[in-house]
């Protein structure tokens, strides 16, 4: 049973986002970005109460901007999905998740050491240039069940 319901078009869309956000961090880095996308669909809290699909997670607008910078700035996001990234996206959608992004809802590249919190959310770990953050205990239990 997959972690979330999805269509084949979701695999390609997610693969494009994973590549655009983390190609320089290899397959592992792309898988962590995929974790965050799936976790946002699972989460029934915070900014993600109305996010119930891969499409909604990727094209969500918060504070007047897309949640994922690659949607508005990334040339790679608008390129066709490649077979390797589609395979990784399907792994995320079906079962794969791992620390530090196992329960993460946010990540960013600070171009400096990772802060211990980000918008009051605790740091869960770092992989290469990205810092990952999961919800504070008791604020989003749904992400831990998904």
UniProtKB/TrEMBL annotation:
Residues 24-133 form the Cell wall hydrolase SleB domain. It holds the Pfam family Hydrolase_2. It comes from the Bacteria. Keywords: Hydrolase. One of its GO terms (molecular function) is hydrolase activity. InterPro entries: Cell_wall_hydrolase_SleB, SleB_dom1. This is Cell wall hydrolase cwlJ. It comes from Schinkia azotoformans LMG 9581.
């Amino acid at each position: 049973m997959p972690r979330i319901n999805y269509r084949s078009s979701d695999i390609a869309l997610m693969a494009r986002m994973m590549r655009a956000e983390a190609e320089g961090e290899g397959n592992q880095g792309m898988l962590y970005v995929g974790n965050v996308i799936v976790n946002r669909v699972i989460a029934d809290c915070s900014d993600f109460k109305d996010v119930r699909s891969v499409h909604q997670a990727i094209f969500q607008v918060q504070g007047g901007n897309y949640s994922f910078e690659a949607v508005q700035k990334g040339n790679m996001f608008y390129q066709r999905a490649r077979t390797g990234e589609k395979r990784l996206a399907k792994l995320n959608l079906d079962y794969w998740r791992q620390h530090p992004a196992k329960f993460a809802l946010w990540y960013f590249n600070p171009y400096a050491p990772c802060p211990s919190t980000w918008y009051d959310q605790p740091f869960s770990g770092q992989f290469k240039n990205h810092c990952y953050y999961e919800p504070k205990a008791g604020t989003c239990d749904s992400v831990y069940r998904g």
